[in-house]
Amino acid sequence: MNAPFVSVGVKVSIADLGDPDVCADIERFVADHPQGTPFHLPRWIQAVERGTGNKAVALVAERGSRIVGLLPLNEIHSPIFGRLLASAGFAVDGGLLLADGQSGMCLLAAAEDLAQSRSCPTIELRGGPVAANRTGWALRTESHCGFVTQLAADDEAQLTAIPRKQRAEVRKGLAGDLKVNTGTGMIDREAHYAVFAESVHNLGTPVFPRRLFEAVLDAFGDAADILTIRHAGRPVASVLSLYWRGAVMPYWGGGTWEARRLRANDRMYYELMLHARRRGCDRFDFGRSKTNSGAYHFKRNWGFTPEPLSYAVWTAPGCAIRNADPTSAKHALQIALWQRLPLRVANSLGPWIARGLG
Q1: For residue 289, what pLDDT is reported?
Q2: Rounded to 10 degrees, what is the CA torsion of 158, 162, 167, 173?
Q3: pLDDT (tens digit, 9 = 90+) per residue, 314-356?
Q4: What percent of the chain has pLDDT over 90?
Q5: Cα 152-41-125 angle, rounded to 5 deg
Q6: CATH code at 199?
Q7: Residue 341 confidence (pLDDT)
Q8: Residue 1's pLDDT is what?
Q9: What residues form the membrane-spanning segments (predicted)?
Q10: What are the φ and ψ backbone dihedral angles of 74, each rounded to 5 degrees?
Q11: CA separation, residue 324 to residues 78, 200, 256 (Å)
Q12: Sign of dihedral through CA atoms 272, 270, 45, 199?
């Protein structure tokens, strides 16, 4: 490791992610930490690097030979949205991970220095503690919410746990001629990407590179899979999920236009609850959604209670605040135009744009 940043009794360095022993030490720190997430793991930021080309960097704070703090980052480059350090890239969580009693100030200072040395005028931390009064940092606690609930004891209890109106939609999906498949093979990957690409195109946003999904699946092995709903042999809804500490995390999912009529998305998430319980999970983590967005209300309809998430953004002195939110009013015209593009054209251009969203 390099050691350019030093605080009292603590050394902050850039981890050598090419060293398996260094990565193993970080993995153990994350696994033992009560706030550790899959997005803190070296394998996540490395998968993002392989899948999008955005370099993985991990800042590690050590006291002696013991890790006491971690900040995983991806260096995001976009000719449209600019450059930033994201913790973690393409993740809904990340941010500072600190041992008990450890201040994160030295890691934040190191991140600021790193950002300026690499011409990144923005740092985004998606979770973790940040001092609200630290110069240059803005703390947001109302922009996004997370949704987590316990899984029921059996299939029927899981169905009755869903609120009445949403349960009726699930029952329609159960009554339809739909087939459920799970796996991580090439057929599963192709089906998932085709559905996901069509889904985000319908929403007016560019699709991520397929190699990002491939890299995450390869990195997480048995801790990730794809569940796909098919109608007449054609995939109509599909979701790529992560599994972490007894929780299933449906991460990249979507459905075709036909999925709405078939209630395929409703069937998909119910089947994922059952699948996850059979895998030994006891919680369903529905991920983050922008507050009061369509996805936010969809998850509330399933009986999930929104919990505000803390995000922190640093902007270099004299620089404009970055806006890469594809749903913002600023990008409304671009979204409308993107929806009108032929799907083949959107799928060709989308990954080049989306790799810079971070």
Answers
A1: 86
A2: -50
A3: 998 887 777 666 556 665 566 566 566 676 766 676 666 767 7
A4: 68
A5: 90
A6: 3.40.630.30
A7: 62
A8: 43
A9: none
A10: -120, 135
A11: 10, 16, 25
A12: positive
- β-partners of residue 315 are 122
| C-alpha distances out from residue 279 to 156, 225, 293, Å | 17, 11, 31
Examine residue 75 and state whether it is found in any structural domain, yes or no: yes
Residue 101: left (phi > 0), alpha (psi -120 to 50), or beta? left
Expressed in angstroms, the distance from the first to the final Cα of the chain is: 26
Separation of alpha carbons 83 and 63, rounded Å:
31
Two tokens at 149? 């609930």
Containing structural domain, residue 254: 145-307
Per-residue pLDDT for 247 more than 70?
yes
Please report, as a single letter, which amino acid is at residue 31: A
Dmax over CA atoms of the chain, in Å, equals 64
Position 351 in a domain: no
In a shared domain, residues 75 and 90: yes
Q: What are phi and psi of 334, to 5 degrees?
A: -60, -40
Cβ–Cβ contacts within 10 Å for residue 222, how many?
8
* pTM for the structure as a whole: 0.90
